[in-house]
Sequence to fold (320 residues):
Amino acid sequence: MSTRGSETTRRISIDADAAGGRLDRALADALPDLSRSRIKTLIAKGCVSMGGGKVTDVSRRVKSGEVFDVMIPDLVPAVPAGQDIPLEVVYEDDQVIVINKPAGLVVHPAPGNPDRTLVNALIAHCGASLSGVGGVARPGIVHRLDKDTSGLMVAAKTDLAHRALAEQFAAHTLERAYQAVVWGIPAKNEGTIEGNIGRHPRNRKKMTVVRRGGKHAVTHYKILRRLGTWASLVECRLETGRTHQIRVHMSSIGHPIVGDPVYGRSDRRRLHTAKTSFVNAVTALNRQALHAYLIGFEHPKTHVFLRFESDLPEELKTLL
Fold:
């Protein structure tokens, strides 16, 4: 390995085991700290050479004994920029960070929320410990929570961690469980809701269960506690990770989440049958009663399975 100015060059020799494979795959295997997508980007930008000549074909078949020089530019500053926003850090090392997100904090910058997001906070908090994702000094977000959903999230600090967590997410081996206060009492103590989720045909800001198209979605729920006849505390576990999945699925079976301004408005009629203290707590609630209380994943470097739990926030405890 050599370093010059603002770049690092890694020399990779192709062995017999890698011979015949694609260039991007061979380099990704030889450089496990870089994701395959990052390798592809470097190849396309002319950062990979052999014998002094640039190699830009990611699918080129490599031969045993070939030697490639991979020039890795230094990280560029993150866009968005870091902002000093307090975070509740549950766990952190050189690969990952687990935080307990409060309700009201947007995860990622977007139109309407250009800054003051979790990503801005993580960039500032992690600082130099971010080795970067995709060549940029930013955290890797592999799953999100809605603005007004609280709870545990894991973010990657390196390309290696981002790739490993994304693979676990895709394979449904990343464990996630939520607790929610929903209107009414489901007919079964536990059950499975399965229905494709897609955009609402008349309101593009909403998701809904669709008969055709959409994305496959499966939610498992279990009643943890009944709150009179008007509401219940349920645990939800996801097989898939679709936009607003728990909110849409629970609403689809007639038990929307308490405080949900999008999928639970029609159920405010149940307030007339609820206990006064519960009505007061709902009136004071400025969020949906949904909390990601558990997350578990295999550590990308040590391969030890890590599992974390988070208590319900005080405003949701008040509902109970």
